[in-house]
């Protein structure tokens, strides 16, 4: 180390409250919460950002992030976020949702918010299962994946194919930026952080709709260890939900 060079300080972001989370070991929600808190601190946004918590595993988002936040009825999160943005256009507004909240009961809301091009940022956590309610099949559950409601595995004949929300929304005219990321290796986490930053910039600079889908591990209901859950994403999950930029009108 060069003499008098300041040491790198790594600690809890100021916007991340010192509350112990309720998330299971290996869950990706805590990592994404920290990413959001780091961006808020780096951009000095704490008084200028409003977050929307979903009904799902992240229902207590506002107990972990030290920002203005509220909660909507199950699936209505993006519509409420859009209303807040219309009322307070100077604020940066983001909706934080799981696959059940966004792709299940909230399919109607996310489609029409995106179709109108509401200038909000949507952070979509996809772990392919209903976590809070006991591990039932979700719209994004993989073919053959065992859940409490598909004990023999998801059947394409009976339950259909997983819903690719990002690709579906990309067919609409108004969305400006849609990317699918992964919570896994440190490099993956850095890429996810950059994607969320870009989503916030799209809202701030272009006044446009954007969505970042994040493939997140759920070791508890996938019934694997956290290290195996990370490999599961790469070896299995990404075959149905490939990572990458799906739509980018900013270029």
Structural class: alpha/beta
Strand content: 15-25%
Gross geometry: globular
- How far apart are the termini? 40 Å
Overall description:
There is one protein chain. This protein is an alpha/beta fold. It has a single domain, classed as Rossmann fold. 37% of the residues lie in helices and 16% in strands. The protein contains nine helices and seven strands. The protein has helices spanning 29-42, 77-87, 99-105, 107-116, 156-159, 165-170, 186-206, 219-222, 226-240, and strands at 49-53, 68-71, 92-98, 121-126, 177-182, 210-215, 244-248. The chain has a seven-stranded mixed sheet with strand order 2-1-3-4-6-5-7, sandwiched between helices. It starts with 28 loop residues before the first helix and ends with a strand. The model has no long low-confidence stretch (mean pLDDT 94).
Q: Briefly, what is this?
A:
The chain is of the alpha/beta class and 251 residues long.
Topology readout:
Elements: H1 29-42, E1 49-53, E2 68-71, H2 77-87, E3 92-98, H3 99-105, H4 107-116, E4 121-126, H5 156-159, H6 165-170, E5 177-182, H7 186-206, E6 210-215, H8 219-222, H9 226-240, E7 244-248
Parallel strand pairs: 1-2, 1-3, 3-4, 4-6, 5-6
Antiparallel strand pairs: 5-7
Helix pairs in contact: 1-7, 3-4
């Amino acid at each position: 180390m060069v003499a008098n060079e300041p040491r790198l300080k790594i600690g809890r972001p100021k916007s991340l409250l010192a509350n112990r989370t309720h998330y299971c070991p290996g869950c990706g929600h805590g990592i994404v919460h920290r990413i959001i808190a780091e961006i808020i601190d780096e951009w000095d946004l704490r008084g200028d950002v409003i977050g929307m918590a979903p009904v799902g595993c992240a229902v207590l988002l506002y107990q972990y992030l030290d920002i203005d936040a509220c909660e909507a009825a199950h699936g209505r999160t993006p519509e409420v976020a859009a209303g807040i943005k219309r009322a307070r256009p100077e604020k940066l507004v983001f909706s934080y949702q799981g696959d059940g909240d966004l792709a299940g009961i909230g399919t109607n809301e996310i489609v029409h918010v995106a179709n109108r091009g509401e200038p909000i940022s949507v952070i979509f956590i996809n772990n392919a299962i209903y976590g809070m309610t006991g591990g039932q099949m979700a719209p994004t559950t993989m073919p053959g994946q065992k859940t409490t409601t598909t004990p023999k595995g998801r059947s394409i004949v009976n339950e259909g194919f997983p819903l690719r929300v990002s690709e579906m929304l990309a067919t609409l005219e108004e969305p400006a930026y849609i990317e699918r990321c992964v919570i896994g290796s440190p490099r993956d986490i850095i890429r996810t952080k950059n994607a969320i930053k870009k989503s916030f910039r799209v809202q701030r600079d272009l006044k446009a709709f954007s969505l970042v889908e994040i493939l997140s591990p759920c070791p508890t209901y996938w019934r694997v260890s956290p290290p195996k859950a990370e490999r599961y994403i790469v070896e299995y999950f990404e075959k149905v939900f490939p990572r990458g930029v799906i739509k980018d009108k900013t270029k």
